Write a sequence for this structure.
């Protein structure tokens, strides 16, 4: 007697969304790594090559995420009010650091 399992339903839209978000995060990581390149002990030629590779990877992952997420997500990203939210977020992080140092 064999058991039959119901087919697994895959939420493709949800996976696409998370892939797009991960690619946007990866683009920020690539650009962040670009700031560390001057401190590496690589030769000048390799430093230039690594910098170029990081820029290409950062741009490529961002635009691939835009293709996956679509125009609406890009419009939300552009319309997000960073100037209001960033100071509040930094203040919150500062309070967390102070509370951790008081312990």
């Amino acid at each position: 007697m064999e058991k039959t399992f119901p087919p697994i339903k895959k939420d493709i839209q949800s996976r696409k969304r998370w892939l797009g978000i991960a690619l946007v995060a990866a683009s920020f990581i690539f650009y962040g790594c670009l700031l560390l390149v001057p401190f590496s002990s690589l030769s000048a030629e390799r430093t230039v090559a690594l910098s170029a590779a990081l820029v290409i990877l950062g741009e490529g992952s961002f635009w691939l995420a835009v293709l996956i997420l679509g125009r609406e997500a890009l419009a939300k990203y552009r319309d997000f009010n960073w100037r209001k939210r960033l100071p509040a977020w930094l203040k919150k992080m500062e309070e967390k650091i102070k509370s951790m140092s008081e312990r």
Notes: The mean pLDDT is 84. The radius of gyration is 21 Å. The chain has one domain: 12-102.
